[in-house]
Amino acid sequence: MERAVSSAESYGELVQIIYSSRSLLAGTTAEIAAGIADILAVSHRNNARDDVTGALFFNGRSFAQTLEGKSLAVADCYAHILKDKRHTDIRLLRHEYVTARCFEGWAMAYVEGPCGLGFTISPGFLHATVAKNDEAAAVLELMRHVMAYP
Ligand SMILES: Cc1cc2nc3c(=O)[nH]c(=O)nc-3n(C[C@H](O)[C@H](O)[C@H](O)COP(=O)(O)O)c2cc1C
Question: Which residues belong to any copy of the BLUF domain (predicted)?
Answer without folding.
Answer: 14-109
